[in-house]
Fold this sequence. Notes:
2 domains
Amino acid sequence: MTTLALKAFKHYPKLSDETNAFTATLYVDGMKTAYCNDDGKGGCIDFQIWNMEKFAEAEAWAKAQPAITYTEYNLTVESTLEIVIGDLVDDNLRRWEKKAEEKWLKRQCANQTLFRLLTDPEDEWRTVIHPFNARMKAWLTQKYGDRIMIGNELIGQEA
């Protein structure tokens, strides 16, 4: 089985227009294979290939993957190495975003209690300027019942 990984990944959000602007090194089965670059303007990913054999193996593996269907456009396309790398880029960005959200939540919960009602927008929190503890949880639960999500309890949980 072929494994692909992006290392030395750098994202350039200010340059990202139609696609994610990034640079990275592509590793195939643990071997440094190519330098990848996308300028974020919607064109192809540029490759500087260092190991042609591993690069060809990665292309063949990507083409052997199932076709991708975009239901919103009623479009099906064959899998390519560019699509697979685009998915790896998206995965990296999702992980970074999740880490940033967890760091923010942990910092906010250090000296106060964060909560929201299930009807509140997902990116908004209510605060009580009091450290979270069992008494605070009991008070919030008594006041709001099961209509509440407490941010302090989410720290360290897997999504």
